[in-house]
Amino acid sequence: MSSNILITGAGGYIGGSIAAHLLAKTNGLIQKDQVIAAVRSKEQADAVSKLGIRVLQLDLSNEKDVTESVLHHNISIVIHTASVDPSIVLPLVNALGKQKQVNGGETHFIYTSGLSAFYEKTGWPVGSFKDTDPVFDTEKRIADSFLLRKTDVAVIEHAEAQGVTSFIVVPSLVYGKGSGEWNKLSVVLPLYVKASISAKAVYKFPENPRVSGVHISDLTALYGLIVEHILRGETVPSGREGYYFALAHDMFLGEVGDHLARALCDRGLISDSKTHNYSDPEAAAESLGVPAPFVQMLWDSGPDIIAELPHSIGWKPEWNKERFLQDVDDEVQAVVDLGKAKSSLVDSLLKSAMG
Protein backbone atom coordinates (compact mmCIF):
# COMPACT_ATOMS: atom_id res chain seq x y z
CA MET A 1 0.00 0.00 0.00
CA SER A 2 1.24 3.47 -0.86
CA SER A 3 2.25 5.46 2.22
CA ASN A 4 0.44 8.63 1.26
CA ILE A 5 0.56 11.41 3.84
CA LEU A 6 -2.37 13.66 4.73
CA ILE A 7 -1.59 16.95 6.48
CA THR A 8 -4.61 18.53 8.13
CA GLY A 9 -4.54 22.26 8.80
CA ALA A 10 -2.30 22.66 5.75
CA GLY A 11 -3.54 26.23 5.39
CA GLY A 12 -2.15 27.01 8.85
CA TYR A 13 1.23 28.08 10.14
CA ILE A 14 2.45 24.68 11.34
CA GLY A 15 0.59 22.48 8.86
CA GLY A 16 1.56 24.60 5.88
CA SER A 17 5.18 24.66 6.96
CA ILE A 18 5.19 20.86 7.41
CA ALA A 19 3.88 20.44 3.86
CA ALA A 20 6.62 22.70 2.49
CA HIS A 21 9.25 20.88 4.54
CA LEU A 22 8.22 17.42 3.31
CA LEU A 23 8.23 18.62 -0.28
CA ALA A 24 11.71 20.08 0.14
CA LYS A 25 13.21 16.76 1.29
CA THR A 26 15.73 15.42 -1.18
CA ASN A 27 16.50 12.02 0.34
CA GLY A 28 14.12 10.18 -1.98
CA LEU A 29 11.87 8.88 0.80
CA ILE A 30 9.05 11.36 0.20
CA GLN A 31 7.67 12.06 -3.25
CA LYS A 32 5.46 15.01 -4.14
CA ASP A 33 2.54 12.80 -5.14
CA GLN A 34 2.54 11.23 -1.67
CA VAL A 35 1.76 14.51 0.10
CA ILE A 36 -1.90 15.52 0.37
CA ALA A 37 -3.17 18.68 2.06
CA ALA A 38 -6.49 19.10 3.87
CA VAL A 39 -7.84 22.65 4.21
CA ARG A 40 -11.11 24.32 5.24
CA SER A 41 -11.83 26.89 2.55
CA LYS A 42 -11.55 27.36 -1.20
CA GLU A 43 -9.28 30.34 -0.63
CA GLN A 44 -6.91 28.14 1.35
CA ALA A 45 -7.16 25.40 -1.26
CA ASP A 46 -6.25 27.82 -4.04
CA ALA A 47 -3.21 29.01 -2.09
CA VAL A 48 -1.92 25.57 -1.07
CA SER A 49 -2.43 24.23 -4.59
CA LYS A 50 0.53 26.38 -5.62
CA LEU A 51 2.74 23.70 -4.04
CA GLY A 52 1.68 21.33 -6.81
CA ILE A 53 0.17 18.74 -4.48
CA ARG A 54 -3.31 17.28 -4.09
CA VAL A 55 -5.51 19.49 -1.91
CA LEU A 56 -8.74 18.35 -0.26
CA GLN A 57 -11.28 20.87 0.98
CA LEU A 58 -12.48 18.64 3.78
CA ASP A 59 -14.85 18.98 6.73
CA LEU A 60 -12.94 17.03 9.36
CA SER A 61 -16.03 16.71 11.55
CA ASN A 62 -17.77 14.69 8.82
CA GLU A 63 -16.53 11.18 9.57
CA LYS A 64 -18.05 9.68 6.42
CA ASP A 65 -16.24 12.14 4.16
CA VAL A 66 -13.01 11.78 6.14
CA THR A 67 -13.08 7.98 5.88
CA GLU A 68 -13.91 8.04 2.17
CA SER A 69 -11.04 10.46 1.54
CA VAL A 70 -8.53 8.38 3.51
CA LEU A 71 -9.52 5.21 1.66
CA HIS A 72 -9.80 6.79 -1.79
CA HIS A 73 -6.37 8.43 -1.56
CA ASN A 74 -4.63 5.46 0.09
CA ILE A 75 -3.60 7.55 3.10
CA SER A 76 -1.66 5.65 5.74
CA ILE A 77 -0.08 8.57 7.61
CA VAL A 78 -2.02 11.54 8.98
CA ILE A 79 -0.25 14.58 10.43
CA HIS A 80 -2.92 16.47 12.32
CA THR A 81 -2.40 20.18 13.04
CA ALA A 82 -5.94 21.51 12.61
CA SER A 83 -7.72 21.27 15.97
CA VAL A 84 -7.56 19.78 19.47
CA ASP A 85 -11.31 19.11 19.52
CA PRO A 86 -11.91 15.34 19.93
CA SER A 87 -14.87 15.52 17.54
CA ILE A 88 -12.39 16.58 14.84
CA VAL A 89 -9.51 14.34 15.89
CA LEU A 90 -11.08 10.93 16.51
CA PRO A 91 -12.77 10.54 13.10
CA LEU A 92 -9.30 10.69 11.56
CA VAL A 93 -8.15 7.87 13.81
CA ASN A 94 -11.25 5.86 12.89
CA ALA A 95 -10.50 6.41 9.21
CA LEU A 96 -6.95 5.14 9.62
CA GLY A 97 -8.29 2.12 11.49
CA LYS A 98 -10.60 1.42 8.56
CA GLN A 99 -7.70 1.85 6.14
CA LYS A 100 -5.68 -0.75 8.03
CA GLN A 101 -8.65 -3.11 8.08
CA VAL A 102 -9.30 -2.76 4.34
CA ASN A 103 -5.72 -2.75 3.04
CA GLY A 104 -3.81 -4.62 5.74
CA GLY A 105 -0.93 -2.15 6.02
CA GLU A 106 0.18 -0.21 9.07
CA THR A 107 -1.29 3.23 9.65
CA HIS A 108 0.08 6.12 11.70
CA PHE A 109 -1.43 9.20 13.35
CA ILE A 110 0.83 12.12 14.30
CA TYR A 111 -1.17 14.44 16.55
CA THR A 112 -0.25 18.01 17.50
CA SER A 113 -1.01 18.80 21.14
CA GLY A 114 -0.16 21.87 23.23
CA LEU A 115 2.44 22.55 25.90
CA SER A 116 -0.16 24.14 28.19
CA ALA A 117 -1.34 20.62 29.06
CA PHE A 118 1.87 20.31 31.06
CA TYR A 119 1.74 23.57 33.01
CA GLU A 120 1.30 23.57 36.75
CA LYS A 121 -1.27 26.36 36.38
CA THR A 122 -3.52 24.03 34.38
CA GLY A 123 -3.26 21.24 36.94
CA TRP A 124 -0.11 19.35 35.93
CA PRO A 125 1.82 18.04 38.97
CA VAL A 126 4.51 20.30 40.37
CA GLY A 127 8.11 19.43 39.57
CA SER A 128 10.30 18.43 36.66
CA PHE A 129 9.76 15.33 34.55
CA LYS A 130 11.30 13.57 31.57
CA ASP A 131 9.46 12.60 28.42
CA THR A 132 10.51 9.04 29.23
CA ASP A 133 8.59 9.19 32.52
CA PRO A 134 5.00 7.83 32.61
CA VAL A 135 3.55 10.93 30.93
CA PHE A 136 0.49 9.09 29.63
CA ASP A 137 -0.37 7.66 33.05
CA THR A 138 -0.22 11.12 34.59
CA GLU A 139 -2.32 12.65 31.81
CA LYS A 140 -4.94 9.93 32.16
CA ARG A 141 -5.16 10.38 35.92
CA ILE A 142 -5.96 14.09 35.58
CA ALA A 143 -7.43 14.11 32.06
CA ASP A 144 -10.79 15.59 33.00
CA SER A 145 -9.17 18.74 34.39
CA PHE A 146 -8.07 20.12 30.99
CA LEU A 147 -9.25 19.58 27.41
CA LEU A 148 -5.79 19.14 25.89
CA ARG A 149 -4.94 16.35 28.30
CA LYS A 150 -8.29 14.69 27.70
CA THR A 151 -7.70 14.75 23.95
CA ASP A 152 -4.15 13.39 24.28
CA VAL A 153 -5.45 10.42 26.24
CA ALA A 154 -8.37 9.89 23.85
CA VAL A 155 -6.03 9.90 20.85
CA ILE A 156 -3.68 7.31 22.34
CA GLU A 157 -6.38 5.00 23.66
CA HIS A 158 -8.53 5.27 20.55
CA ALA A 159 -5.55 4.62 18.29
CA GLU A 160 -4.69 1.53 20.32
CA ALA A 161 -8.23 0.25 19.93
CA GLN A 162 -8.13 0.84 16.17
CA GLY A 163 -4.68 -0.68 15.69
CA VAL A 164 -3.24 2.68 14.63
CA THR A 165 0.24 3.75 15.71
CA SER A 166 0.09 7.18 17.34
CA PHE A 167 2.57 9.92 18.15
CA ILE A 168 1.99 13.08 20.19
CA VAL A 169 4.06 16.10 19.14
CA VAL A 170 4.04 18.95 21.65
CA PRO A 171 5.37 22.25 20.26
CA SER A 172 6.73 24.86 22.63
CA LEU A 173 6.61 28.60 21.83
CA VAL A 174 7.03 28.53 18.04
CA TYR A 175 8.64 31.46 16.26
CA GLY A 176 9.97 32.36 12.83
CA LYS A 177 8.35 33.00 9.48
CA GLY A 178 6.57 29.93 8.19
CA SER A 179 7.06 28.37 4.77
CA GLY A 180 3.43 27.50 3.99
CA GLU A 181 1.31 29.12 1.29
CA TRP A 182 -1.59 30.47 3.34
CA ASN A 183 -0.43 31.54 6.80
CA LYS A 184 3.25 32.22 7.40
CA LEU A 185 2.86 33.91 10.78
CA SER A 186 3.08 32.39 14.23
CA VAL A 187 0.84 33.58 17.04
CA VAL A 188 2.36 34.33 20.43
CA LEU A 189 5.32 36.54 19.55
CA PRO A 190 3.45 38.46 16.83
CA LEU A 191 0.75 39.22 19.42
CA TYR A 192 3.48 40.66 21.62
CA VAL A 193 5.03 42.63 18.76
CA LYS A 194 1.67 44.09 17.64
CA ALA A 195 0.72 45.02 21.23
CA SER A 196 4.07 46.76 21.72
CA ILE A 197 3.70 48.74 18.52
CA SER A 198 0.15 49.72 19.45
CA ALA A 199 1.16 50.80 22.97
CA LYS A 200 4.29 52.56 21.70
CA ALA A 201 6.18 50.67 24.41
CA VAL A 202 7.30 47.16 25.34
CA TYR A 203 5.79 45.65 28.49
CA LYS A 204 7.18 42.65 30.34
CA PHE A 205 5.98 40.29 33.05
CA PRO A 206 7.66 41.28 36.33
CA GLU A 207 8.22 37.60 37.16
CA ASN A 208 10.45 37.22 34.06
CA PRO A 209 9.16 33.71 33.33
CA ARG A 210 11.27 31.09 31.59
CA VAL A 211 9.69 29.46 28.55
CA SER A 212 10.79 26.92 25.96
CA GLY A 213 11.00 27.90 22.31
CA VAL A 214 11.46 26.30 18.90
CA HIS A 215 11.93 27.78 15.45
CA ILE A 216 9.32 26.68 12.91
CA SER A 217 12.01 25.09 10.72
CA ASP A 218 13.23 22.97 13.63
CA LEU A 219 9.67 21.99 14.53
CA THR A 220 8.86 20.86 10.99
CA ALA A 221 12.13 18.92 10.94
CA LEU A 222 10.89 16.91 13.94
CA TYR A 223 7.67 15.97 12.14
CA GLY A 224 9.75 15.09 9.10
CA LEU A 225 12.01 12.79 11.13
CA ILE A 226 9.04 10.87 12.51
CA VAL A 227 7.67 10.43 8.99
CA GLU A 228 11.04 9.29 7.67
CA HIS A 229 11.33 6.63 10.38
CA ILE A 230 7.84 5.41 9.51
CA LEU A 231 8.62 5.21 5.79
CA ARG A 232 11.83 3.29 6.50
CA GLY A 233 9.86 0.81 8.57
CA GLU A 234 11.86 1.67 11.67
CA THR A 235 10.37 1.34 15.13
CA VAL A 236 10.49 4.50 17.27
CA PRO A 237 8.66 5.25 20.53
CA SER A 238 4.93 5.62 19.95
CA GLY A 239 1.59 5.38 21.71
CA ARG A 240 1.89 5.72 25.46
CA GLU A 241 5.65 6.21 25.12
CA GLY A 242 5.43 8.50 22.09
CA TYR A 243 5.38 12.05 23.46
CA TYR A 244 7.73 14.24 21.41
CA PHE A 245 8.27 17.58 23.15
CA ALA A 246 9.67 20.10 20.66
CA LEU A 247 11.80 22.02 23.15
CA ALA A 248 14.81 23.42 21.31
CA HIS A 249 15.94 25.90 23.94
CA ASP A 250 14.85 27.93 26.95
CA MET A 251 14.60 31.70 27.11
CA PHE A 252 13.46 34.30 29.58
CA LEU A 253 10.68 36.58 28.41
CA GLY A 254 12.40 39.53 30.04
CA GLU A 255 15.33 39.06 27.66
CA VAL A 256 12.93 38.82 24.74
CA GLY A 257 11.30 42.09 25.80
CA ASP A 258 14.64 43.88 26.09
CA HIS A 259 15.76 42.79 22.63
CA LEU A 260 12.35 43.55 21.13
CA ALA A 261 12.35 47.05 22.59
CA ARG A 262 15.71 47.78 20.98
CA ALA A 263 14.56 46.37 17.63
CA LEU A 264 11.35 48.42 17.65
CA CYS A 265 13.18 51.55 18.75
CA ASP A 266 15.76 51.12 15.96
CA ARG A 267 12.87 50.99 13.48
CA GLY A 268 11.24 54.08 14.97
CA LEU A 269 8.14 52.11 15.93
CA ILE A 270 8.49 53.10 19.60
CA SER A 271 10.13 56.18 21.03
CA ASP A 272 12.73 54.58 23.33
CA SER A 273 14.10 51.18 24.28
CA LYS A 274 13.04 51.30 27.93
CA THR A 275 10.74 48.45 28.97
CA HIS A 276 7.85 48.53 31.44
CA ASN A 277 6.07 45.91 33.54
CA TYR A 278 2.52 44.65 33.14
CA SER A 279 0.63 45.27 36.38
CA ASP A 280 -1.12 41.89 36.26
CA PRO A 281 -2.24 39.15 33.81
CA GLU A 282 -5.51 40.97 33.15
CA ALA A 283 -3.64 44.06 31.96
CA ALA A 284 -1.48 41.85 29.74
CA ALA A 285 -4.58 40.14 28.34
CA GLU A 286 -6.18 43.46 27.49
CA SER A 287 -3.03 44.67 25.79
CA LEU A 288 -2.55 41.46 23.81
CA GLY A 289 -6.22 41.05 22.96
CA VAL A 290 -6.60 37.49 24.27
CA PRO A 291 -8.38 35.89 27.26
CA ALA A 292 -6.52 36.11 30.58
CA PRO A 293 -6.22 32.29 30.96
CA PHE A 294 -4.45 32.19 27.58
CA VAL A 295 -1.93 34.76 28.83
CA GLN A 296 -1.31 32.82 32.00
CA MET A 297 -0.66 29.61 30.11
CA LEU A 298 1.48 30.94 27.28
CA TRP A 299 3.27 33.90 28.81
CA ASP A 300 3.29 33.73 32.57
CA SER A 301 4.38 30.16 33.23
CA GLY A 302 6.47 27.37 31.80
CA PRO A 303 6.81 23.62 32.25
CA ASP A 304 9.95 21.97 33.59
CA ILE A 305 10.43 19.19 31.05
CA ILE A 306 13.54 17.27 30.09
CA ALA A 307 12.98 16.25 26.48
CA GLU A 308 15.15 13.33 25.37
CA LEU A 309 12.91 11.47 22.93
CA PRO A 310 13.20 13.86 19.94
CA HIS A 311 17.00 13.79 20.16
CA SER A 312 16.98 9.99 20.39
CA ILE A 313 15.52 9.79 16.87
CA GLY A 314 18.04 12.25 15.43
CA TRP A 315 16.51 15.69 16.04
CA LYS A 316 19.18 18.42 16.01
CA PRO A 317 17.65 21.92 16.27
CA GLU A 318 19.62 24.58 14.41
CA TRP A 319 18.20 27.51 16.38
CA ASN A 320 19.21 28.31 19.97
CA LYS A 321 18.44 31.19 22.32
CA GLU A 322 21.38 33.29 21.17
CA ARG A 323 20.43 33.01 17.51
CA PHE A 324 16.81 33.85 18.27
CA LEU A 325 17.67 36.95 20.32
CA GLN A 326 20.16 38.11 17.72
CA ASP A 327 17.49 37.85 15.02
CA VAL A 328 14.46 39.03 17.01
CA ASP A 329 13.97 41.78 14.44
CA ASP A 330 12.84 38.98 12.10
CA GLU A 331 9.70 38.69 14.25
CA VAL A 332 9.07 42.42 13.81
CA GLN A 333 9.56 42.19 10.05
CA ALA A 334 7.13 39.26 9.84
CA VAL A 335 4.43 41.31 11.60
CA VAL A 336 5.12 44.34 9.40
CA ASP A 337 4.84 42.15 6.29
CA LEU A 338 1.98 39.87 7.29
CA GLY A 339 -0.13 41.56 9.97
CA LYS A 340 -1.74 38.80 12.04
CA ALA A 341 -1.90 35.03 12.09
CA LYS A 342 -4.71 33.00 10.50
CA SER A 343 -4.91 29.82 12.57
CA SER A 344 -7.76 27.43 13.39
CA LEU A 345 -5.46 25.52 15.74
CA VAL A 346 -5.00 28.63 17.86
CA ASP A 347 -8.75 29.23 17.87
CA SER A 348 -9.06 25.70 19.24
CA LEU A 349 -6.39 26.32 21.88
CA LEU A 350 -8.09 29.55 22.92
CA LYS A 351 -11.32 27.62 23.36
CA SER A 352 -9.59 25.05 25.54
CA ALA A 353 -8.01 27.82 27.63
CA MET A 354 -11.43 29.14 28.45
CA GLY A 355 -12.48 25.78 29.83
Describe it.
This protein has 355 residues and is of the alpha/beta class. The protein has a domain at 4-173 and 215-246: NAD(P)-binding Rossmann-like Domain (Rossmann fold, 3-Layer(aba) Sandwich). Helices cover 44% and strands 17% of the residues. It contains 15 helices and 14 strands. The strands form four sheets. It has a seven-stranded parallel β-sheet, with helices on both faces. Strands 8-10-12 form a three-stranded mixed β-sheet. A two-stranded parallel sheet has the order 6-14. Helix 1 crosses helix 8 and helix 10 crosses helix 11 (292-298). It is globular and about 65 Å long. The termini are far apart. The mean pLDDT is 92. GO terms for molecular function: aldehyde dehydrogenase (NAD+) activity. Pfam families: NAD_binding_10 (PF13460). Residues 9-185 form the NAD(P)-binding domain. This is NAD(P)-binding domain-containing protein. One of its GO terms (cellular component) is cytoplasm.
Topology summary:
Elements: E1 4-8, H1 13-24, E2 35-39, H2 42-48, E3 54-57, H3 63-72, E4 75-80, H4 86-103, E5 108-112, E6 129-130, H5 135-141, H6 147-162, E7 165-171, E8 173-175, H7 188-199, E9 202-204, E10 210-215, H8 216-231, E11 243-246, E12 249-252, H9 253-266, E13 275-277, H10 281-288, H11 292-298, E14 305-306, H12 309-312, H13 321-326, H14 329-338, H15 344-353
Parallel strand pairs: 1-2, 1-4, 2-3, 4-5, 5-7, 6-14, 7-11, 8-10, 9-13
Antiparallel strand pairs: 10-12
Helix pairs in contact: 1-8, 3-4, 4-6, 7-14, 10-11
